[in-house]
Write a structure and sequence with these properties.
This protein has six helices and seven strands. The N and C termini lie far apart (38 Å). The chain is globular, with a radius of gyration of 15 Å. The protein has a single domain, classed as Rossmann fold. Helix 5 links the parallel strand 4 and strand 5. It has 192 residues and is α/β, with parallel strands linked by helices.
């Protein structure tokens, strides 16, 4: 069994039972537009939030148990979201374009080799003026527990060709394990 599917047998520390504040603020500021793809959606809190705000939303995750839980939440909340089990390195299989893509905690799990594949897949599914919003662990967070830390330069290098970085700013990755939450980067990146 894969690590993430096993994690969803319980309640992983990143599953806080609501969307991360950074994504709520995006909606409030009008930065989320059109159709939305939530990549690595977990149990669906971001996707369901966007759907509740009136967006057409798809959510994908490689963990079947996470998708099952997301579908159950959607039914209970009477919200329509297209939830699919899909590897983030195979977004091209969706065979459609989205205006917005969101990623809360996926990018920092990718190996250096997989990052390039992921970025190519993002380019394949985003509309010509599409935007990608990403929350990932920051290298400013001390080592120890948790995922790999990502530097601002690594984000810039990953999106150097064919992309325009609107901003990369310090943020907090809300978690159930620490009240203050680990340090993170929040990025807005547009397709050129």
């Amino acid at each position: 069994m894969d690590f993430f599917d096993a994690a969803y047998r319980g309640r992983p520390p990143w599953d806080i039972g609501r969307p991360q504040k950074e994504f709520i603020e995006l909606v409030r500021r009008g930065e989320i537009t059109g159709s939305v793809l939530d990549i690595g959606c977990g149990t669906g809190e971001h996707a369901l939030f966007f759907a509740g705000e009136g967006f057409e939303v798809w959510g994908i995750d490689s963990a079947p148990l996470a998708i099952q839980k997301a579908r159950e939440k959607a039914d209970k909340r009477e919200l329509r979201v297209h939830f699919l089990v899909l590897n983030a390195l195979e977004l091209f299989r969706l065979d459609r374009k989205f205006d917005t893509a969101t990623d809360s905690g996926l990018f920092h799990t990718l190996s250096d080799e997989d990052r390039a594949v992921y970025v190519d897949n993002l380019a394949a599914i985003l509309s010509p003026t599409g935007k990608y919003f990403m929350l990932c662990f920051s290298d400013r967070e001390p080592g120890g527990y948790g995922p790999r830390r990502i530097s601002k330069k690594e984000i810039q290098d990953s999106f150097r060709v064919g992309w325009s970085i609107n901003y990369i700013r310090p943020a907090v990755f809300e978690s159930r394990t620490r009240a203050e939450g680990p340090r993170a980067w929040f990025s807005s990146i547009s397709k050129k």
